[in-house]
Amino acid sequence: MVRLFYLIVISLFFSPFLISHAQSPQQLYENAEARIAANDPTNVLRDVTTSCDQNYGPACDLLGQMYSIESSVQDYAKAYGLFVKGCNLGDPGACEGKGNMEFDGKGTAKNEPAARQSYIKACNGGDTLGCYYLGTMQYNGQGGGTDLASARRSFETACTARNAKSCEYVGWMALKGEGGPIDFSKAKVAYQTSCDLENPGACNMR
Asked: pTM for the full model?
């Protein structure tokens, strides 16, 4: 899932809205991604908007990111609506974005239970950050009851996908026996992985 740099995103809103060539929604999105990677914002907003309008979930997620970024054209309400649409279309990144806005109360009322459900959808769809955020909510009892066993599973999933903070949580929970048995070997491996992923807080726990 593409995460845009600020300057690239801001420049997209000044691209001309020309008529798109006949391409599938997926082609429009993939071509736009390629131009972003090449630092060429030409018609990116136009093509991503068209792709989302044609119900391509990843495009709705990307468009939501564009409108949620801090800039003069920022529109949280519009971004939230795009994340909702993308999530409903089955895009896990959009579900994560939806959860982020529900958790922070941006573009919609703050709603931690809704955010937790959005992160469940994101994590089940393979979104690494969705699993990490879900794990923190399950661990801290946000948006529902504390569920250490589920939190440990969520962190393990995200750690396997090389999310450094999730690996640190896995190490801590394995060391303390939270949400499962004490496992010193697993704790050591998790802390080492987190440290290798440049999370300095885990390096002293190896």
From this structure: 0.87
